[in-house]
Write a structure and sequence with these properties.
395 residues, 11% strand, 12 helices
Protein backbone atom coordinates (compact mmCIF):
# COMPACT_ATOMS: atom_id res chain seq x y z
CA UNK A 1 0.00 0.00 0.00
CA UNK A 2 2.82 2.40 0.86
CA UNK A 3 4.68 1.68 -2.37
CA UNK A 4 1.52 2.10 -4.44
CA UNK A 5 0.64 5.35 -2.67
CA UNK A 6 4.14 6.71 -3.25
CA UNK A 7 3.98 5.83 -6.93
CA UNK A 8 0.61 7.55 -7.25
CA UNK A 9 1.91 10.68 -5.54
CA UNK A 10 4.96 10.72 -7.81
CA UNK A 11 2.77 10.37 -10.90
CA UNK A 12 0.46 13.14 -9.68
CA UNK A 13 3.39 15.47 -9.03
CA UNK A 14 4.82 14.65 -12.43
CA UNK A 15 1.53 15.59 -14.14
CA UNK A 16 0.90 18.67 -11.98
CA UNK A 17 4.25 20.28 -11.05
CA UNK A 18 3.88 22.98 -8.42
CA UNK A 19 6.69 25.06 -9.91
CA UNK A 20 7.08 25.76 -13.65
CA UNK A 21 10.30 24.36 -15.04
CA UNK A 22 11.53 27.74 -16.26
CA UNK A 23 11.62 28.96 -12.67
CA UNK A 24 14.13 26.25 -11.82
CA UNK A 25 16.27 27.36 -14.76
CA UNK A 26 16.30 31.01 -13.67
CA UNK A 27 19.73 32.56 -13.89
CA UNK A 28 21.55 29.60 -15.45
CA UNK A 29 22.39 31.51 -18.63
CA UNK A 30 23.43 34.74 -16.85
CA UNK A 31 20.83 36.81 -18.72
CA UNK A 32 18.88 38.02 -15.64
CA UNK A 33 22.06 39.38 -14.02
CA UNK A 34 23.04 41.19 -17.22
CA UNK A 35 19.58 42.73 -17.57
CA UNK A 36 19.56 43.80 -13.92
CA UNK A 37 22.97 45.47 -14.23
CA UNK A 38 21.93 47.24 -17.43
CA UNK A 39 18.66 48.43 -15.87
CA UNK A 40 20.44 49.93 -12.87
CA UNK A 41 22.96 51.67 -15.14
CA UNK A 42 20.23 53.14 -17.36
CA UNK A 43 18.23 54.31 -14.33
CA UNK A 44 21.29 55.92 -12.81
CA UNK A 45 22.13 57.77 -16.00
CA UNK A 46 18.60 58.93 -16.82
CA UNK A 47 17.27 59.93 -13.42
CA UNK A 48 20.29 60.68 -11.29
CA UNK A 49 22.79 62.25 -13.68
CA UNK A 50 20.75 63.65 -16.53
CA UNK A 51 22.80 66.55 -17.97
CA UNK A 52 21.06 69.48 -16.30
CA UNK A 53 23.02 72.30 -14.64
CA UNK A 54 24.42 71.16 -11.33
CA UNK A 55 24.11 67.47 -12.14
CA UNK A 56 27.67 67.00 -13.37
CA UNK A 57 29.75 64.29 -11.77
CA UNK A 58 33.42 63.56 -11.90
CA UNK A 59 34.88 61.18 -14.48
CA UNK A 60 35.99 58.93 -11.62
CA UNK A 61 32.41 58.64 -10.34
CA UNK A 62 31.08 57.88 -13.83
CA UNK A 63 33.76 55.22 -14.32
CA UNK A 64 32.96 53.56 -10.98
CA UNK A 65 29.23 53.53 -11.78
CA UNK A 66 29.87 51.77 -15.08
CA UNK A 67 32.37 49.45 -13.39
CA UNK A 68 29.82 48.33 -10.78
CA UNK A 69 27.07 47.66 -13.32
CA UNK A 70 29.42 45.87 -15.70
CA UNK A 71 30.82 43.40 -13.17
CA UNK A 72 27.45 42.85 -11.50
CA UNK A 73 26.01 42.02 -14.94
CA UNK A 74 28.63 39.35 -15.70
CA UNK A 75 28.16 37.60 -12.34
CA UNK A 76 25.74 35.09 -13.83
CA UNK A 77 28.30 33.96 -16.40
CA UNK A 78 31.52 34.45 -14.44
CA UNK A 79 30.48 34.47 -10.75
CA UNK A 80 33.91 34.89 -9.14
CA UNK A 81 35.00 37.59 -11.58
CA UNK A 82 31.77 39.51 -11.13
CA UNK A 83 31.81 39.17 -7.33
CA UNK A 84 35.40 40.39 -7.04
CA UNK A 85 34.73 43.20 -9.53
CA UNK A 86 31.83 44.56 -7.46
CA UNK A 87 34.02 44.33 -4.35
CA UNK A 88 36.71 46.39 -6.11
CA UNK A 89 34.01 48.95 -6.88
CA UNK A 90 33.43 49.26 -3.11
CA UNK A 91 37.12 49.85 -2.49
CA UNK A 92 37.34 52.45 -5.26
CA UNK A 93 34.25 54.30 -4.01
CA UNK A 94 35.59 54.43 -0.45
CA UNK A 95 39.07 55.49 -1.58
CA UNK A 96 37.72 58.25 -3.81
CA UNK A 97 35.16 59.40 -1.24
CA UNK A 98 32.31 59.14 -3.73
CA UNK A 99 28.74 59.75 -2.56
CA UNK A 100 26.19 56.90 -2.54
CA UNK A 101 24.31 56.41 -5.79
CA UNK A 102 21.70 54.01 -7.21
CA UNK A 103 24.52 51.86 -8.62
CA UNK A 104 24.95 50.52 -5.08
CA UNK A 105 21.92 48.35 -5.85
CA UNK A 106 24.21 46.19 -7.99
CA UNK A 107 25.77 44.72 -4.85
CA UNK A 108 22.61 42.62 -4.41
CA UNK A 109 23.05 40.95 -7.81
CA UNK A 110 26.08 38.77 -6.88
CA UNK A 111 24.44 37.77 -3.59
CA UNK A 112 21.30 36.53 -5.34
CA UNK A 113 23.15 35.07 -8.33
CA UNK A 114 25.65 33.02 -6.32
CA UNK A 115 22.84 31.36 -4.40
CA UNK A 116 20.76 30.76 -7.52
CA UNK A 117 23.75 29.03 -9.13
CA UNK A 118 24.22 26.77 -6.11
CA UNK A 119 27.28 28.44 -4.54
CA UNK A 120 26.25 28.91 -0.89
CA UNK A 121 29.81 29.40 0.42
CA UNK A 122 30.54 32.14 -2.09
CA UNK A 123 27.15 33.70 -1.37
CA UNK A 124 27.74 33.81 2.38
CA UNK A 125 31.20 35.29 1.98
CA UNK A 126 29.87 37.83 -0.50
CA UNK A 127 26.98 38.90 1.75
CA UNK A 128 29.22 39.46 4.78
CA UNK A 129 31.92 41.26 2.76
CA UNK A 130 29.45 43.52 0.97
CA UNK A 131 27.69 44.36 4.22
CA UNK A 132 30.98 45.42 5.77
CA UNK A 133 31.87 47.41 2.63
CA UNK A 134 28.48 49.13 2.52
CA UNK A 135 28.83 50.18 6.17
CA UNK A 136 32.39 51.41 5.62
CA UNK A 137 31.20 53.51 2.70
CA UNK A 138 27.93 54.93 4.02
CA UNK A 139 28.52 55.34 7.78
CA UNK A 140 31.01 58.21 7.29
CA UNK A 141 28.25 60.02 5.39
CA UNK A 142 25.83 59.87 8.35
CA UNK A 143 25.26 62.83 10.63
CA UNK A 144 24.75 61.25 14.08
CA UNK A 145 24.70 57.99 16.01
CA UNK A 146 21.00 57.42 15.36
CA UNK A 147 21.61 57.43 11.62
CA UNK A 148 24.54 55.07 12.12
CA UNK A 149 22.28 52.54 13.84
CA UNK A 150 19.63 52.99 11.18
CA UNK A 151 22.24 52.49 8.45
CA UNK A 152 23.49 49.27 10.03
CA UNK A 153 19.96 47.90 10.41
CA UNK A 154 18.82 48.92 6.92
CA UNK A 155 21.86 47.37 5.24
CA UNK A 156 21.47 44.18 7.29
CA UNK A 157 17.81 43.89 6.27
CA UNK A 158 18.46 44.60 2.59
CA UNK A 159 21.39 42.19 2.29
CA UNK A 160 19.46 39.61 4.31
CA UNK A 161 16.54 39.88 1.89
CA UNK A 162 18.92 39.46 -1.06
CA UNK A 163 20.46 36.40 0.62
CA UNK A 164 17.02 34.90 1.26
CA UNK A 165 15.87 35.65 -2.31
CA UNK A 166 18.87 33.83 -3.74
CA UNK A 167 18.27 30.77 -1.59
CA UNK A 168 14.59 30.77 -2.57
CA UNK A 169 15.43 30.87 -6.27
CA UNK A 170 17.87 27.99 -5.80
CA UNK A 171 15.25 25.95 -3.95
CA UNK A 172 12.65 26.62 -6.64
CA UNK A 173 15.11 25.68 -9.37
CA UNK A 174 15.96 22.40 -7.67
CA UNK A 175 12.31 21.67 -7.09
CA UNK A 176 11.61 22.31 -10.77
CA UNK A 177 14.38 19.91 -11.77
CA UNK A 178 13.03 17.34 -9.33
CA UNK A 179 9.53 17.67 -10.74
CA UNK A 180 10.87 17.29 -14.26
CA UNK A 181 12.77 14.15 -13.21
CA UNK A 182 9.60 12.76 -11.61
CA UNK A 183 7.69 13.40 -14.80
CA UNK A 184 10.33 11.63 -16.87
CA UNK A 185 10.43 8.65 -14.54
CA UNK A 186 6.63 8.40 -14.52
CA UNK A 187 6.59 8.39 -18.31
CA UNK A 188 9.35 5.79 -18.48
CA UNK A 189 7.57 3.60 -15.96
CA UNK A 190 4.32 3.82 -17.88
CA UNK A 191 6.02 3.03 -21.19
CA UNK A 192 7.86 0.05 -19.68
CA UNK A 193 4.57 -1.22 -18.24
CA UNK A 194 2.89 -1.05 -21.64
CA UNK A 195 5.88 -2.79 -23.23
CA UNK A 196 5.71 -5.59 -20.66
CA UNK A 197 2.00 -6.02 -21.28
CA UNK A 198 2.57 -6.27 -25.01
CA UNK A 199 5.33 -8.81 -24.50
CA UNK A 200 3.44 -10.92 -21.98
CA UNK A 201 0.32 -11.13 -24.12
CA UNK A 202 0.38 -10.43 -27.85
CA UNK A 203 4.09 -10.86 -28.57
CA UNK A 204 4.47 -14.08 -26.63
CA UNK A 205 1.30 -15.61 -28.04
CA UNK A 206 2.23 -14.68 -31.62
CA UNK A 207 5.77 -16.04 -31.30
CA UNK A 208 4.42 -19.26 -29.81
CA UNK A 209 2.01 -19.69 -32.74
CA UNK A 210 4.87 -19.14 -35.18
CA UNK A 211 6.96 -21.82 -33.49
CA UNK A 212 4.05 -24.27 -33.51
CA UNK A 213 3.35 -23.53 -37.20
CA UNK A 214 7.02 -24.13 -38.04
CA UNK A 215 6.94 -27.45 -36.19
CA UNK A 216 3.77 -28.52 -38.03
CA UNK A 217 5.35 -27.50 -41.34
CA UNK A 218 8.37 -29.74 -40.67
CA UNK A 219 6.06 -32.73 -40.12
CA UNK A 220 3.68 -32.01 -43.00
CA UNK A 221 3.87 -33.26 -46.60
CA UNK A 222 0.68 -31.61 -47.89
CA UNK A 223 1.73 -28.78 -50.31
CA UNK A 224 -1.47 -26.80 -49.74
CA UNK A 225 -1.11 -26.99 -45.98
CA UNK A 226 2.54 -25.95 -46.26
CA UNK A 227 1.54 -22.88 -48.30
CA UNK A 228 -1.04 -21.93 -45.67
CA UNK A 229 1.51 -22.43 -42.91
CA UNK A 230 4.06 -20.31 -44.80
CA UNK A 231 1.49 -17.50 -44.99
CA UNK A 232 0.73 -17.80 -41.26
CA UNK A 233 4.44 -17.87 -40.37
CA UNK A 234 5.31 -14.87 -42.58
CA UNK A 235 2.39 -12.82 -41.25
CA UNK A 236 3.24 -13.75 -37.67
CA UNK A 237 6.89 -12.76 -38.11
CA UNK A 238 5.91 -9.38 -39.49
CA UNK A 239 3.60 -8.89 -36.52
CA UNK A 240 6.35 -9.87 -34.06
CA UNK A 241 8.80 -7.47 -35.71
CA UNK A 242 6.27 -4.65 -35.50
CA UNK A 243 5.56 -5.46 -31.86
CA UNK A 244 9.26 -5.57 -31.04
CA UNK A 245 9.74 -2.19 -32.65
CA UNK A 246 6.87 -0.80 -30.58
CA UNK A 247 8.29 -2.31 -27.39
CA UNK A 248 11.78 -0.95 -28.03
CA UNK A 249 10.31 2.49 -28.71
CA UNK A 250 8.29 2.35 -25.49
CA UNK A 251 11.30 1.24 -23.45
CA UNK A 252 13.65 3.95 -24.65
CA UNK A 253 15.43 5.63 -21.73
CA UNK A 254 14.60 9.15 -22.97
CA UNK A 255 10.82 9.57 -23.27
CA UNK A 256 11.28 12.83 -25.21
CA UNK A 257 13.46 11.21 -27.86
CA UNK A 258 11.56 10.82 -31.09
CA UNK A 259 11.60 7.39 -32.64
CA UNK A 260 12.49 8.96 -35.98
CA UNK A 261 15.91 9.95 -34.64
CA UNK A 262 16.79 6.33 -33.93
CA UNK A 263 18.52 4.20 -36.51
CA UNK A 264 16.27 1.45 -37.83
CA UNK A 265 16.97 -1.98 -36.45
CA UNK A 266 18.89 -4.09 -38.96
CA UNK A 267 18.22 -7.81 -39.36
CA UNK A 268 21.57 -9.61 -39.15
CA UNK A 269 22.51 -13.24 -39.53
CA UNK A 270 24.54 -14.81 -36.69
CA UNK A 271 27.64 -14.87 -38.93
CA UNK A 272 27.31 -11.16 -39.75
CA UNK A 273 26.69 -10.34 -36.09
CA UNK A 274 29.79 -12.29 -35.01
CA UNK A 275 31.99 -10.57 -37.57
CA UNK A 276 30.69 -7.08 -36.78
CA UNK A 277 30.85 -7.45 -33.01
CA UNK A 278 34.29 -9.02 -33.09
CA UNK A 279 35.58 -5.92 -34.91
CA UNK A 280 33.82 -3.61 -32.43
CA UNK A 281 35.30 -5.40 -29.44
CA UNK A 282 38.76 -5.22 -30.99
CA UNK A 283 38.36 -1.49 -31.45
CA UNK A 284 37.78 -1.19 -27.69
CA UNK A 285 40.80 -3.30 -26.74
CA UNK A 286 38.87 -6.56 -26.21
CA UNK A 287 39.58 -9.89 -27.88
CA UNK A 288 36.60 -12.11 -28.66
CA UNK A 289 37.42 -15.81 -28.74
CA UNK A 290 34.72 -17.55 -30.78
CA UNK A 291 33.77 -21.21 -30.86
CA UNK A 292 30.69 -21.50 -33.06
CA UNK A 293 29.21 -24.39 -35.03
CA UNK A 294 28.69 -24.08 -38.76
CA UNK A 295 25.24 -23.70 -40.20
CA UNK A 296 23.93 -21.09 -37.77
CA UNK A 297 22.66 -19.01 -40.68
CA UNK A 298 20.52 -21.96 -41.76
CA UNK A 299 18.35 -21.94 -38.66
CA UNK A 300 14.67 -21.01 -38.82
CA UNK A 301 14.18 -17.30 -39.38
CA UNK A 302 12.86 -16.51 -35.90
CA UNK A 303 15.64 -18.45 -34.16
CA UNK A 304 18.34 -17.06 -36.45
CA UNK A 305 17.20 -13.49 -35.85
CA UNK A 306 16.94 -13.97 -32.08
CA UNK A 307 20.45 -15.48 -31.95
CA UNK A 308 21.94 -12.63 -33.98
CA UNK A 309 20.29 -10.04 -31.75
CA UNK A 310 21.49 -11.89 -28.67
CA UNK A 311 25.08 -11.80 -29.95
CA UNK A 312 24.83 -8.06 -30.56
CA UNK A 313 23.34 -7.28 -27.14
CA UNK A 314 25.69 -9.52 -25.16
CA UNK A 315 28.86 -8.28 -26.86
CA UNK A 316 27.69 -4.65 -26.57
CA UNK A 317 27.37 -5.28 -22.84
CA UNK A 318 30.98 -6.51 -22.89
CA UNK A 319 32.11 -3.22 -24.39
CA UNK A 320 30.52 -1.36 -21.47
CA UNK A 321 31.61 -3.51 -18.54
CA UNK A 322 34.32 -5.98 -19.55
CA UNK A 323 37.93 -5.66 -18.45
CA UNK A 324 40.41 -5.19 -21.28
CA UNK A 325 41.45 -8.60 -22.49
CA UNK A 326 39.89 -11.79 -23.85
CA UNK A 327 36.17 -12.51 -23.93
CA UNK A 328 34.65 -15.83 -24.95
CA UNK A 329 31.62 -16.85 -26.98
CA UNK A 330 30.56 -20.47 -27.45
CA UNK A 331 27.62 -21.39 -29.71
CA UNK A 332 26.58 -24.99 -30.12
CA UNK A 333 23.77 -26.14 -32.41
CA UNK A 334 22.10 -29.33 -31.22
CA UNK A 335 19.22 -31.29 -32.72
CA UNK A 336 16.54 -29.54 -30.70
CA UNK A 337 18.17 -26.32 -29.50
CA UNK A 338 20.98 -23.80 -29.89
CA UNK A 339 22.99 -22.97 -26.80
CA UNK A 340 25.12 -19.83 -26.48
CA UNK A 341 27.46 -18.91 -23.62
CA UNK A 342 29.14 -15.51 -23.25
CA UNK A 343 31.85 -14.89 -20.64
CA UNK A 344 34.13 -11.96 -19.82
CA UNK A 345 36.04 -10.47 -16.91
CA UNK A 346 34.32 -7.54 -15.20
CA UNK A 347 36.29 -4.30 -15.20
CA UNK A 348 37.21 -2.74 -11.86
CA UNK A 349 34.28 -0.59 -10.77
CA UNK A 350 32.09 -2.12 -13.47
CA UNK A 351 28.47 -3.04 -12.87
CA UNK A 352 27.82 -6.71 -13.69
CA UNK A 353 24.49 -7.35 -15.29
CA UNK A 354 23.22 -9.93 -12.87
CA UNK A 355 19.63 -9.64 -14.05
CA UNK A 356 18.19 -9.07 -17.52
CA UNK A 357 15.93 -6.30 -16.22
CA UNK A 358 18.83 -3.95 -15.56
CA UNK A 359 19.29 -2.78 -19.14
CA UNK A 360 17.20 -2.24 -22.24
CA UNK A 361 19.46 -4.43 -24.38
CA UNK A 362 19.32 -7.47 -22.11
CA UNK A 363 15.60 -6.92 -21.50
CA UNK A 364 15.01 -7.15 -25.24
CA UNK A 365 17.30 -10.18 -25.57
CA UNK A 366 15.51 -11.97 -22.74
CA UNK A 367 12.10 -11.21 -24.23
CA UNK A 368 13.09 -12.48 -27.66
CA UNK A 369 14.53 -15.69 -26.23
CA UNK A 370 11.56 -16.38 -23.96
CA UNK A 371 9.07 -15.55 -26.73
CA UNK A 372 10.53 -18.49 -28.66
CA UNK A 373 10.22 -20.80 -25.66
CA UNK A 374 13.88 -20.50 -24.71
CA UNK A 375 15.76 -19.58 -21.55
CA UNK A 376 18.24 -16.82 -20.70
CA UNK A 377 20.11 -16.29 -17.45
CA UNK A 378 23.03 -14.18 -16.27
CA UNK A 379 25.35 -14.74 -13.34
CA UNK A 380 28.76 -13.85 -11.96
CA UNK A 381 31.41 -16.25 -10.69
CA UNK A 382 34.12 -14.27 -8.93
CA UNK A 383 35.06 -11.55 -11.41
CA UNK A 384 33.65 -13.45 -14.41
CA UNK A 385 30.34 -12.41 -15.95
CA UNK A 386 28.40 -15.21 -17.64
CA UNK A 387 25.37 -15.16 -19.91
CA UNK A 388 23.74 -18.43 -20.96
CA UNK A 389 20.93 -18.76 -23.49
CA UNK A 390 19.09 -21.73 -24.95
CA UNK A 391 16.89 -21.40 -28.04
CA UNK A 392 14.70 -24.32 -29.23
CA UNK A 393 14.87 -24.92 -32.97
CA UNK A 394 11.78 -27.11 -33.31
CA UNK A 395 11.41 -30.71 -34.34
Amino acid sequence: MTSTGGARRAAHQARHPRVPRWVGQLGLAGVPEALAGLTILVYNELFEHFPFPGSERSPEAAFVDIWWCLFAGVTGRWPRLGTVGVGIGFVASIALGLPASPTMLTLFIPIVSNAAHGRPTLQNATALTYWAGALAWTIPQTANSVEVVQTIIIWAIMIGLAWLSGRTIQRLRREGEHQFALRGEALRSQRRSIARDLHDTVSYATATMIMRAEQIKLRSTDPELIRDLDFIIATGRRSVRDLRGMMETLRRNDPDLEASTQAPRQLLTPTEALRRQQAELAAHGLRLQISADDGLDGLHDSVREALARLIVEATSNMVKYAARGPCQLIVEAQDDAVEAVFTNQIAAGGLPRTAPGLGLGLVGASERVKALGGELETSTVGSTWILRARLPVGE
